[in-house]
Amino acid sequence: ETLRSTVEVEVSVGEKQAVSSPETNCGTKIKSSVKSTMNIDVPQFIPSNPNTISAVVSQGTSGPTQTHSSRPTFDFGQSNQQRGQRMLYGSSSLRSSVGVSTHIVETAHGTCEYASLSELSKTLAGSSMLQTKLLEGNAEVMKMVYKMVMAKPVDYANNPMATYLVQKLIACLQKEELVAFAKAVGSHFLEISTNKNGTHVVQELLKQDDPDVSLILIRSLAHVKNLPQFLSTVNGSHVAQACLCPVMEKEVVTFIVAGILPDLIELSNGVNSTFFIQKLINFMRAQGFTDVNLLVKGVLNNITHLAFNNNGTRIVQLAISKTSDKLLKRGVQWMTENFRLIYKNREAVFASLVIIEQMIARQSSEEWCTMLLQFVQTIIRETDEQIPLFICAAKDLNGYKICNILLKTIKGRVREDFIALISQYFSVLENCVAGINVIKVSKNAATPISSP
């Protein structure tokens, strides 16, 4: 939009003559043939409710002014000192204009007036100014902002500009006010948590290290009706991860586990939800929640659907890293039966490496030594396109990692079988990067496990 105003023009003979705006007398001419029109482009300052705002546009300090009841105020004639004084928020910055109180904010383009604190908080300049006042410890501003936010928590928490003000406000609140605000947010937990702006408000509340505040929000998480859908959103996943803190009650953990087990595959493979599952497993182990065994069991029961996925494989590795012998045996069985598919897949290879490492860690048990040697004999004996699976893996840029860890671990007669195979297919291996690496490793001494 363009504002046009009446200004005064200084002519050469020292006379002052008014120049009418084009709207009233477009044909008017003056002695010096000078016509002055001031165009001001101000779309960024037009408020949502312009009828409650007054505006004054002036040129210099000597000319007359024209008032428009539907435009914001710009005063280009003020000194820097005057502008600085008007920017101070307080009784001096409130004045009557068209019968309402206005809030004045100084910007790089001039002075703007806003009809309400709510409107002010939803602008970049206004939100920044109010945040500064909160950081300065202005108790009056803090009370006004707190009252405003408590009236409509969703409106301000989810607003792109006001959300930063709300986050600053949280750090200024006393215990009772903080708890009251947490309850207000908890009443709209789903709407605020899944919003790209509101999610930061919820996370900021959980960072306050206040058990009462944390419990309010954690219990709100337990009341989410469609938990899998909530965890599948990037903002919901972040909030749920922030809720995993020591004050979480066992009942809430049980609710979460029961809610995710039916959709464990989708959540483990999900772009956003996988991070919550990973953190949940670690959290439950650290806190000693036995329900973690249900999750681990569910992961290993669905290992085929998870291990080949770039997100699911992380869940598999995490589940296997600290699991019981009984559940680990399921992983060994899966690896042995599906090796011809595993060695070609990067994610499945990573899961298999963790299984092998856990078997090696249990080498003091004769049972686990036997299981590992049986796996080795299987990949030596079975073939893929008439080539032993061990050689197939050795040629693959992913599978060679499994061959290397076995060569470094196994010794005795089985190791001799490895060496014999490598010698037999030496010409094949030396023509690929992965094969050369396996040949080098095979020349090094092996350690701990011996074959009979």
Describe the structure.
The protein is mainly alpha-helical and about 450 residues long. It has helices at about 80-85, 115-120, 125-135, 140-150, 155, 160-170, 175-185, 190-195, 200-205, 210-220, 225-230, 235-245, 250-260, 265-270, 275-285, 290-300, 305, 310-320, 325-335, 340, 345-360, 365-380, 390-395, 400-410, 415-425, 425-430, 435-440, and strands at about 1-5, 5-10, 15-20, 40, 55, 65-70, 95, 100-105, 110-115, 385, 385-390, 410, 450. The chain is built from 27 helices and 13 strands. The strands form six sheets. The chain has a three-stranded antiparallel β-sheet. The protein has a two-stranded antiparallel ribbon with strand order 1-4. The longest helix is centred in the C-terminal third of the chain and has 16 residues, at about 345-360. The protein starts with a strand and ends with a strand. The model is unreliable at about 1-100, about 105-110 and about 445-450 (pLDDT under 50).
